[in-house]
Specification:
about 180 residues, alpha+beta, seven-stranded antiparallel sheet, two-stranded antiparallel ribbon, 9 strands, about 20% helix
């Protein structure tokens, strides 16, 4: 199945992108996401409730360019992959577009997919993200590294990049970051 949704956010592209790289904050605005654990700069472990069932999977970021895009794919569990792109519209306005492919598992997930439940969930998650970032004076952290072809090319460095895994805001990996 395929989903594509966009939203405009009243914040500069670097702030929107920086917040999106804070994957461990996803449960604050993504419906059904219980936990996202940053394993390293390009790998995440997800725990979610989907169609009433607890699901866990790992994902890796294979392409990441600051202020432009984050592309991911699952490596275990529920099959999903996609890209989140960030497009500046004005100095203080950014469009986020999520394009995602996923394989629904079981009858309930297939029915939900057929009825557009995943698209509605992504749309709701984008609205909640917009409200989250617009309600803050600044992002909760940032990771400005780059990943190309699955290889971490740079770690971004700088004062806003915490230095150890398990610290909120460490690293960068994600799934639309959606299941």
């Amino acid at each position: 199945m395929h989903v594509e949704k966009s939203i405009e956010v009243e914040a500069p592209v670097n702030r929107v992108y920086n917040q999106w790289t804070q994957f461990e904050d996803f449960p604050k605005f993504m419906q059904g996401i219980e936990q996202v654990q940053q394993l390293d700069d390009k790998r995440l472990h997800w725990v979610a409730e989907i169609a009433g069932k607890r699901k866990e999977w790992n994902a890796e970021i294979f392409e990441q360019v600051p202020d432009q895009k984050i592309a991911w794919r699952s490596t275990t569990g529920a099959l999903n992959a996609g890209i989140v792109s960030f497009q500046p519209i004005a100095a203080n306005r950014t469009q986020i577009t999520v394009r995602m492919e996923y394989d629904p598992e079981g009858v309930v997930e297939n029915i939900g997919a057929a009825l557009g439940a995943v698209g509605a969930r992504v749309e709701g998650d984008l609205r909640r993200f917009r409200d989250f970032i617009q309600s803050r004076i600044q992002e909760t952290g940032a990771w400005r590294g780059e990943i190309h072809g699955g290889r971490v090319e740079s770690t971004g460095g700088g004062p806003t990049a915490p230095s150890s895994p398990g610290t909120p805001g460490y690293g960068s990996t994600g799934t639309s970051g959606l299941p």
